[in-house]
Design brief:
alpha/beta; Peroxisomal Thiolase, Chain A, domain 1; eleven-stranded mixed sheet; 14 helices; 15 strands
């Protein structure tokens, strides 16, 4: 089967997800549609002196001793195991296509630095290159965990993907970007299937301090479950979280030939960057508007065909305002009436994993014909005229979903999902 542009239709035959709401689609879907929050006080590490002491940590996964690379690998593997298992494409360990992994930047974290300094007999004035040298000579797991490609290499080994795995970081658009790369590889005829995985396990004091210094994090510590307030007038920042998601992508013909169940199809992908600032998007919104329009154009989709928007919706004053503006520019009056909601109100912002997690939520919306709500919408922002599906999930006829991912540095990616073609 080909799309209107003569390209292979891209089917999703497997999906997996891990967030602070639980492991697997069942736990996450029941939590999202019930409007349950997975945000809580952080207990994994001391938070004294931090302005923000809450987050969406995944506390049911063992993280002792904590390491971003190994923890990210673990939750990524759990999500991918669910996706590959559901697809039944081949036994785990023999995936018939390439791997695309969205993940956070990897660096030597404070506890590891202390261990390396002690090994080297150096004081705390040693520079980063000194630490890498000590780690490489030790040939320890600490050195492997300091390498950016280690997560993808481990996943490739576990799932037996073909070719060199691709690691990528495009800020908060990363998860959607990984999916887009898989779509493009199949469209080019390079493979019949691809595994797209996104995971972020980078919650530790250093990263929280960095985001805090940017005034990006909510400081509503007293009631953690109410801190994430997308599109509300009293929103004050995002709530950092951990999570992972995976999709098995196939050409529609390949999936049908082997009798696979089709969870949905990816009709279109769009991306656009503006390079305006290291963290902010250009106030003119051109890159966000461009990503939205590119996704619709790639899908051959008119604005009136969109039945639901899975928002980026971080809860920062700037992001929600920009998303509202861009949707109005692209969808026109339709932007005011199409249902839109933000999963981040319940699970927090999973950073590099967010686009893939929201892709799974979009597919579940298509499957169940039920739209998850935006919770904590107690004080509507009169400047944002959107149907945010407040508080309670909504049953609706949904055939096409637009999922948005807008990242630091003006990196933006949008995806269009639909149900299985008739």
């Amino acid at each position: 089967m080909k799309d209107a542009a003569g390209r292979p239709v891209i089917a999703v035959t497997g999906a997996g997800i891990v967030t602070s709401l639980g492991e697997g689609k069942q736990d996450n879907w029941s939590g999202l549609t019930a409007g349950r929050s997975g945000i809580h006080a952080i207990t994994r590490f001391p938070t004294e002196g931090l302005r923000t002491t809450i987050g969406g940590t995944i506390d049911f996964v063992d993280v002792e001793p904590f390491c971003c690379a190994s923890f990210t690998t673990e939750i990524a593997s759990r999500a991918a195991t669910e996706a590959v298992g559901q697809s039944a494409i081949r036994p785990v360990g023999d995936f018939p296509g390439p791997l695309f992994v969205a993940m956070p930047p990897i660096e030597i974290e404070w506890p590891l630095r202390e261990r390396l300094l002690a090994m080297a007999g150096k004081d705390d004035e040693a520079d980063y290159s000194d630490l890498l040298e000590v780690a490489s000579k030790a040939q320890s797991i600490d050195y492997e965990n300091s390498l950016y490609g280690s997560v993808a290499e481990r996943l490739a080994s576990t799932f037996g993907t073909k070719g060199s795995p691709i690691s990528l970081t495009t800020a908060c658009a990363s998860g959607a970007t990984a999916i887009q790369l898989g779509v493009e590889a199949i469209r080019r005829g390079e493979t019949d299937a691809a595994l797209a995985v996104a995971a972020d396990g980078s919650m530790y004091p250093e990263t929280m301090i960095r985001f805090s210094l940017l005034s990006a994090l909510s400081t509503q510590n007293d009631e953690p479950e109410k801190a994430a307030r997308p599109f509300s007038k009293n929103r004050d920042g995002f709530v950092m979280a951990e999570g992972a998601a995976a999709l098995v992508l196939e050409s529609y013909e390949h999936a049908k030939a082997r009798g696979a169940d089709i969870l949905g199809v990816i009709r279109g992908c769009g991306e656009k960057a503006d390079s305006f600032h290291r963290t902010r998007s250009n106030p003119d919104g051109k890159a966000i508007i461009g990503a939205l329009q590119a996704a619709l154009d790639d899908a051959g989709c008119a604005p009136d065909e969109i039945d639901y928007i899975n928002a980026h919706g971080t809860g920062t004053p700037e992001n929600d305002k920009m998303e509202n503006f861009a949707l109005g520019e692209v969808l026109g009056e339709r932007a005011r009436t199409v249902p839109i909601s933000s999963n981040k109100s319940m699970i927090g912002h999973t950073l590099t994993a967010a686009g893939a997690i929201e892709a799974v939520a979009s597919l579940l919306t298509l499957e169940h014909q039920r739209i998850p709500p935006t919770i904590n919408y107690d004080v509507p922002d009169p400047a944002i005229e959107l149907d945010v599906v407040p508080f309670t999930a909504r049953d609706a006829e949904v055939s096409t979903v637009l999922s948005n991912s807008f990242g630091f540095g003006g990196q933006n990616a949008c995806l269009v999902f639909s149900g299985e073609p008739a």
